Amino acid sequence: MTLTDLMTILPLAVLVAWTTALLLVDLWIPKDRKGITALLAAFGLALTLGLSLARGQQPRQAFGGMVVVDGFAVFLDVIFLASGLASIALAHDYLKRMNIVRGEYYSLLLYAISGMMLMTYAYDLIIVFLALELLSIPLYILSGFVRLNLRSEEAALKYFLLGTFSSGLVLYGIALIFAATARTDLPGILAAVELAPANLTMFLVGGALLLVGFSFKGAIVPFHEWAPDVYQGAPSSVTAFMSVGAKAAGFAALMRVFVVAFPSLSTDLTPVLWGLAAVTMVFGNIVALAQTNLKRLLAYSSIAQSGYLMMAFVPYGQGIVLSDTIAAMLFFLVGYALTTLGAWAVVIAVEKAEGRGLELQDYAGLGRKYPLLGAAMTVFMLSFIGAPPTLGFWGKFYLFRTAVEGGFTSLALLGLVASIFSAYYYLRVVVMMFMRPGEPEARRDPWLVLTAGVSALAVVGFSLVPGSLLNLALQAVLKLL
Amino acid sequence: MLTTGTIIFGVFALVVIASALGMLLSRNAIYAALFLVLNFATVAVLYLILGAPFIALVQITVYAGSIMVLFLFVIMLLGAEKLPAGEPLGHHRWIALLFGLVFLAELALFLVYRAGMRAAVNTPPLEFGSPAAVGMSLFQKYALPFEITGFILVVATVGAILLTRGEGFKGRKRTLEIQSQDK
Amino acid sequence: MDGAMILEWVIKSIFLILVMTGGFAYVTLYERKVLARIQVRIGPNRAGPFGVLQPVADGIKLIFKEELVPAKADKLIFTLAPVLTVIPALIITAVVPWGTEVTLFGRTIKLYLADINIAVLYLMAVTSISIYGIALAGWSSNNKYATLGGLRATAQMISYELALGFAMIVPVMMAGSMSLVDIVESQKPVWFVFVQPLAFLIYFIAALAEINRSPFDMPEAEQELTAGYHTEYSGMKFALFFMAEYIKMIAISMIGSSLFLGGYRGPFVDQLPALGPLYLFIKVAIVLFVIIWIRATLPRIRYDRLMQFGWKVLFPLALLNVFVTGVVLILVGG
Question: What is the ipTM of this complex?
């Protein structure tokens, strides 16, 4: 470990050091002033964000090729760090209201973000696994943060059990890949497969296990069973972060590992990926139709969105469309992150203690009483559907386009049909807010309103200049090692 | 073909599998834990056969000696050794068994049709498993994973304390929110 | 590997086991004698001259005792537990060298069973395994006192194992090797106890706690737990626990002597290697005397104090000691 190595991953190192210091400093912050901890955590994230942006997209390897920091990583890091900032804004008031103020919340959140950042840097399967654990363990704990609430405890336990199970699958996959190729670094695996001293059967089994393990993390049907319960039971501020960060990190890892090391598996895996994407889109949207609890509705919606993301992944073995499809995925992730965080901000504003205020009826009249909140929620719902003028529209547009380019027109059509179906339940929220009478009570904590407002503005604003955002994503991908 | 090494390996491998099955199938948690200890110990012997005594002893110290002792301790402390008579999973058990068998068959077929077992791993140098060599690779080549593991353990510790300490939860009862009925 | 070598190993192993079991018998006598002297009594003096046949008499008595197995005990584990307790105690000293090498019947024989390059790790592995017997004995008896005793023993041993491990790392760092032969040899200029008195102290305290000796004999505190984890045991099964406890005393004395007190090293040992076992014996006897002396002098400490002391004092101290040793070694050794 040299100084150069450390400088290469400086943003991550700073974040981890800051988080650990925060864990200690928090001991001296009195219980009724945990806002200071939140502020310090936010400052740490902002600092890391600045460092990430400042270091540019020039790809650089460190620690003997264990990690690589490139445009792809930096682009995703920005998403994670910004989501982290938004989650802190969401959490501050929510924790107080739910009476679960603990300073460790922020430290754990920051550790999870460190894990996600590490995941984007990972260039070695060992790091992939460790990053997976570093991001998962804090999330298990955060899901159970509402102690003595059975739903939260159930969520934590379920998430933990299935999470460790999927980690086990990933680890088993890594072990088999190592057995097949005698390497754990991604370029080394590729070389071993191409020069063919590798055992290709074992290699394929290992790759498939990795895919299954990450599908668990990303809540891809049929490995999604945990997601609705966990999303519902976990504190909303955690769910918001989890549904953005954990998912994006999982897809980032899949993308990196499969594109760099497993292109040879694409012939075998493409039908599987196709099937996963199709089933996830269709299933997520159909089950979401029946949901009346907002948290569960958003959970199934997030499963469905995973299906769209999976679509970007289907043509990963085709070198010609590769950069387009990764860029489309990154673009979609930006839209997804903004929309999800904004929607959860509104949910948190309406949610009451003891799990009340989460039913669809509780949103009746919201649009009329709080027009701004209602308008923001409408924007997010439209964006989830993929209707213009929102980022969601462009996200899906680019995704479907690359699917067609890759020769998967039927998949794109399926996605289109699924999106149209999804309009029913997303629009039901809007109808409820504006067309039904009701006297809802919403919190108007400035941070919540700010998060919802900024997200809504960004979702609409960026959709006016989709090309420049896509260019950013494309540039990031071109800097992919 | 059948060398002494293969036979010894075969015997121990059978013990490993048998103890793993015993762990899964025993109804008494203490026996399950003890089967797991046996499993870890036998795996350690396999490491020893492979010429990695350091790893073997670390396996015994850490897994058999520390982690499983804590498992046993917790099982005894909670009196959780006796599983309830009923099967909590009910009919799921048979479905799970079916899927498991299908998966096994799939793997077997796969290996039969797509065989081509080629040894990929070269025999490592003799001093590969020595404490000095392990230490060197741990602190040089694998310095970053080593440090990350440290942070993962910190997070897990913080979480364990957070989720088990009663501070701030005194006087609260377990609640199950039921939204639809209390309106 | 020729036949003679295997034979040599077998003979050495049997010799080691015989010495340890014989040692056990006479350490009980040693303890009773010393305790008696400290308490101004005479001690056992009826069986044979100065009572030297007392252990034999005790053994014969135990063999003829009835073996009781509680009705609701877990029979298998109840029987297995004493064995699981004795085996680690018997095998732990396999890596401790008794001397360098002597020539016997025209054959050079090394005075140690195994000189493995991870001897200290082996010690730690065996120590960590030795908890099972006690924990299982307590649990399988299906008796409150026994279970509590077993749980106490487990918690205590886990807690002190950390400090013990860190104390054992220090000689490893000083010698630059995990082999006990190397560690003893590198104490040629000066015993490690003079360079690392703190490490030795930590080792000694933690080892006492590890084998549940007074003042850390919480698991068998009579006032609270009757006889602790072996409450339900009788006859030879009880004897096995008894044996394990005393063999462990010998073992920690041997290990402590090798790690810190120069092991088999002493004056003229280079010229006359046969002196090695003698020096080791003397050192072990002295350490054993201190252990017994402590038992005669100190009261048992309270259980919560015991755990607090282990985690909040001993463990950080051991960690600090390792850290400081490392820094100093780098500064000095370059």
Answer: 0.90
Q: What is the pLDDT of residues B50-63, one digit of tens each?
A: 778 888 888 888 88
CB atoms within 10 A of CB B134: 17
Q: Token match 């440090």: residue?
A: B147
| Region for residue A386 given its phi and psi (left: phi exceeds 0; alpha: psi -120 to 50; beta: otherwise) | left
- The DSSP code for B121 is P
Averaging pLDDT over each range in A98-102, A274-278, C212-216, which range is the top one? Answer: A274-278
Beta bridge partners of A359: A293
Angle at B34 between CA B28 and CA B40, to 5 degrees: 140
Among C162, C209, C196, which Cα is nearest to C311's? C162
Cβ-based interface (< 8 Å): residues of B facing A: 107, 110-111, 114-122, 140-145, 148-149, 151-152, 154-156, 158-159, 162-163, 168-169, 172-177, 179-180, 182
- Chain B positions touching A354 (Cβ under 8 A) are 175, 177
Within a domain: A204:
no
Using DSSP's 3-state secondary structure scheme, residue A257 falls into helix
- H-run or E-run covering A67: strand A67-69
CA dihedral A379, A384, A389, A390 (to 10 degrees): 80
Determine, yes or no, domain membership for A368: yes
| CA-based nearest distance A148→chain B, Å | 4
Is the residue at A481 inside a domain?
yes
Phi, psi of A40 (to 5 degrees): -65, -40
Kindly report the number of other CB atoms within 10 A of residue B136's CB atom. Answer: 12
Q: Is A419 helix (H, G, I), strand (E, B) or coil?
A: helix
Rounded Cα distance, C325 and C75, in Å: 49
Distance between CA C170 and CA B57 in Å, rounded? 19
The answer to whether the Cβ–Cβ distance between A149 and B141 falls below 8 Å is: no
Which positions 19-58 of A are in contact with B (Cβ < 8 Å)? 20, 23
Domain coverage including residue A459: 268-481
Nearest-CA distance A134 → chain B (Å): 5
Q: C126, C102, C130: which is closest to C12 by C-alpha?
A: C102
Per-residue model confidence (pLDDT) at position B181 = 37
Q: Going from the N-terminus, what domains does chain B have, and what CATH number goes with each?
A: 1-83+126-144 (1.20.120.1200)
Number of folded domains in chain A?
Answer: 1
Q: Say if C and B touch: at least 3 Cβ pairs within 8 Å.
A: yes
Q: Is B90 left (phi over 0), alpha (psi -120 to 50) or beta?
A: left
SS3 B28: strand
- pLDDT reading at A81 higher than 90: yes
In chain A, residues with a C-beta closer than 8 Å to the C-beta of B175 are: 148-150, 354
Model pTM score: 0.88
- CA distance, residue B1 to nearest chain A CA (Å): 21
pLDDT per position as a tens digit, A25-78: 988 888 888 888 899 999 999 999 998 888 777 788 888 888 988 888 889 999
C288 touches chain B (CB under 8 A): no
Residue among C149, C152, C127, C130 at smallest CA distance from C138: C149
Spatial neighbors of A327 by CB under 8 A, at least 6 apart, are A398, A470, A473, A474, A476, A477
- Establish whether chain C is in contact with chain A, requiring a minimum of 3 CB pairs below 8 angstroms: no
> How far apart (Å, rounded) are the C-alpha atoms in residues A258 and A261?
5
- Beta strands (DSSP E) in chain C are 101-104, 107-110
Closest of A428, A451, A437 to residue A368, by C-alpha: A437
In terms of phi and psi (left: phi > 0; alpha: psi -120 to 50; beta: otherwise), the region of A354 is left
Query: Do residues C285 and C208 touch, judged by C-beta distance below 8 A?
Result: no
